[in-house]
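Checked the freezer inventory, then went back to the computational side. Two predictions to log before the end of the day. The first one is the construct we discussed on Monday; recording sequence and tokens without edits.
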Amino acid sequence: MKISIQRDGLTLRGELAGTTNQQVDTLAIVMHGFKADMNSTVTVGVAKHLNEVGIPTLRFSFAGCGDSDGDFADMTVFSEILDAIKVVEYAKQKLGVKHLYLVGHSQGGVITSMVAAYYHDLVDKAVLLSPAASLKDDACQGKCQGSTYDPQHIPRTVDVTGFQVGGAYFRTAQLMPIYETARHYDRPTLIIAGANDSIVDPYFAKKYDTVMPNTKFYLLNGAEHDLSGANGQQAHAFDLVGQFLTDQG
């Protein structure tokens, strides 16, 4: 079912799957990464697997991504936090969700970790897949996926593989309290990273494991940033997510 959520005059578009009910008891909100949208391979794959094990999902595109309103150049981690908050409120107020899970890949993992902390009383479990907390260090060094800039004199926009990323993204990223916020979430958290991740060093996922109080951490040998690998690591990762969210222990 297609859904629309309003945030500050912008329409965020997404899809509710795994249920036909108007009221949903349990729901996993699935968040995509940088330069992606709700139809990314990881986002679709993990949502499909969760539906198969009986957990309804809500995927959505952040503002400026996919079919959602907005300009990608206006996107910041802060703006995506605001997007995610509206989706959490939609789940609770419109769908009547009682058991809420947040699942995020890459930058979506960063959003998940911070929003889970802000809404620790509403979010039952969190899942961080290849969380891109390196975005803060990268912004301080003036680099982003092969593009470089002067971190002391950030331009209005930076071209990152054809995407125009606004200077505000990098300015706010430099001072982003990612781990300082995430450590306040003390409910069960699953963290999965690929040992061969060439986009985000697995160190940044492991650091979540050290600062958050209630975590399970898996480092998948041979897996890339999207958790894929020659030996079915991505499917294994999705299995781990499903087991974690369905575990009643």
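The second is the one RB wanted added to the comparison set:
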Amino acid sequence: QATLIFLLELPEVPEAEIAQIIPNEARKYIPVPLTEVSLDWYKVPKKETYSEEQSSSGSRKMMEVVVVAVRNETLSQYREITTKSGIEVRGQEIEIFSAIRSVFHREISPTLVVDYGAGTTKVSVVEYGVVRAYHVINRGSAFTSDALARSLGIDFDKAEELKKTIG
């Protein structure tokens, strides 16, 4: 819930100008002040296709940029945890990016990735290894267990066990 991932389509500009454009465009998507988040982004590599070779040269060239926003408070908490535990951290990443690296091989078709957690469900659409859409739903498996417990009149732990064994 502390992260937001979105895709921007921007006019093709030199790499040096992207850093100035991204914060202005990101304001449209981020519901908190930009001072409360850290931004990171990467330019999506172009796909070379026959249709692009045949396109008219007069049309304005566009580029896609994946933008990630993470709350500064969350980053500080993770830094504090790693410092106190004595772990050397070289970097941090959002789960969907590690899932792409570990699960995807060379899939090119759009793939739906659902991370069904206890408190939230994260839904992502990944195409060519790029996150095309990312949504966090404020319902997870604990909500299902709670609803099951209430409807059957049993305690939460029994509902969890039923959910795991029966489905």
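For RB: The two ends are 27 Å apart (CA to CA). The longest helix spans residues 72-85. Let me know if you want it refolded.
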